[in-house]
Amino acid sequence: MESEDPIIQVSNLNKSFGENHVLRDFTLSLSKGENLVILGKSGSGKSVLIKCIIRLIEPDSGEIIVLGQDISDLDQDEMDQLRANVGFLFQSNALYDSMTVRQNLEFPLRRHWTKEERAEKAESAVIQALEDVGLGHTIDMMPIELSGGMRKRIALARTLILRPKIILYDEPTTGLDPITAREISDLMNSIQKKYNTAAIIISHDLNCIRMTGNRIIMLIEGRNYAEGTMDELMKNEDPKVKDFFE
Amino acid sequence: MGLERKIDQPFFKEVGEISRFTARFFREVTKPKQEWDEFINQCYWIGYKALTLVSITAFIMGLVLTIQSRPTLVEFGAAALLPSMVSVSLVREISPVITALICAGKIGSGIGAELGSMRVTEQIDAMEVSGTNPFKYLVVTRVLAATVMVPILSSLAIGISLYGGYLGTNIRGEVSWTLYVYQAYDALSYGDFLPSIIKTIFFGFAIGIVGCYKGYTSQKGTEGVGRSATTAVIVASLLVFILDLIAVQVVDILGLT
């Protein structure tokens, strides 16, 4: 892990849905090459947090700086350019079910590569991304033909195709069997090593957190309630923190 | 407080939201870099999906209208006017409206369900985070395709329904194709064709925009997808009738009849 200026800095973030205050003055920073886990109960606002970071959801107040740019200052075009550097793995995978695996992976290229670049390099980029996740043979298959674990890998390959500097994982192992979940966690680690990406991982799968997380933030009542390594948090005597690990 | 409560009514909210959605369509459609490949793809699918149903319905409409009108005209000794009467009815009103209603059912529900499903499975969000503008890719292409294809389908329906009318005329009498066509087209003018085509452009736009709005803003999982598809058909069908009423009034005021 390298210690440089944070590549994501979230300060005093607030987000409410009606009377429900999901995030209250939430603050975090992510360094280059770091895997930061956000741990919290279902409905605690973990997914809302990373959707605010990629501006799928507009926060009520607060500051989000990604790769040195305050995202609230960016127009649509600038935000789209920034998004090329921030991959997002959805909990549901969000594969385009009317497209083949190849078309799924090529889709993000249409905005960021020229037609000539796509004609020249798209094929090799798709093959490389599929090989990174060990599923080269699925290139012409439809998402419906794939198992849950394979779909997760394909979704990860689609995230990787633009070589992002940061990856946001939303519950990457939820709904998978323990063996597949471990394979996905291994894959996340190998991707981080290979491409030196940083990641924010939303999860409550303790095995996944143990395998992938360098640092953990506990999101409780919308706040950054506790922070540390897995071992540090497991020794924490606060009852709300202990609840997670017992 | 009273006004606030009134504005809070779901109907007014819906009207406001759909107006904003339509305004966004016009903003996006005027920006450069349109998704022409997807537009062509949607034209193909919209035309292909509705073609068989529109053709069969148009044929039956022409046939039935002729068969049912004949006894009344015979009673008044005006059987010779059958091709003229049928052609004016089919061109001005029946073919455009029935085609639009079929498209509202077939295309409107299809778009509503497809986009609704993409919304609830986060596929639209995935497009957005990949830097692609999902509104332009999904909505603009489908609305434009519906706006182009419904008039084409309606024109086709007019031709097929007139052929149905010809067969209907020949069931109880004998009229040559040449005479039928002469009588049918003699009764028609540009004032019949032009408003008919123009109103189907509006019908197509309404079907596309309602289907896309309902799907794009779908919520509440699979239940929401079903609701999007159903309400897309209901609202689009209602809009077809409202637009038809407006079109009739405009044509009447302009003296095109």
Automatic annotation (TrEMBL), chain A:
InterPro entries: AAA+_ATPase, ABC_transporter-like_ATP-bd, ABC_transporter-like_CS, P-loop_NTPase. One of its GO terms (molecular function) is ATP binding. It comes from the Bacteria. Residues 8-246 form the ABC transporter domain. Pfam families: ABC_tran. Gene3D superfamilies: P-loop containing nucleotide triphosphate hydrolases (3.40.50.300). Keywords: ATP-binding, Nucleotide-binding, Transport. PANTHER family: PROTEIN TRIGALACTOSYLDIACYLGLYCEROL 3, CHLOROPLASTIC. This is Phospholipid/cholesterol/gamma-HCH transport system ATP-binding protein.
TrEMBL record, chain B:
GO terms for cellular component: ATP-binding cassette (ABC) transporter complex. Keywords: Membrane, Transmembrane, Transmembrane helix, Transport. It is a multi-pass membrane protein. It is found in: Membrane. The keyword Membrane applies. GO terms for molecular function: phospholipid transporter activity. This is Phospholipid/cholesterol/gamma-HCH transport system permease protein.
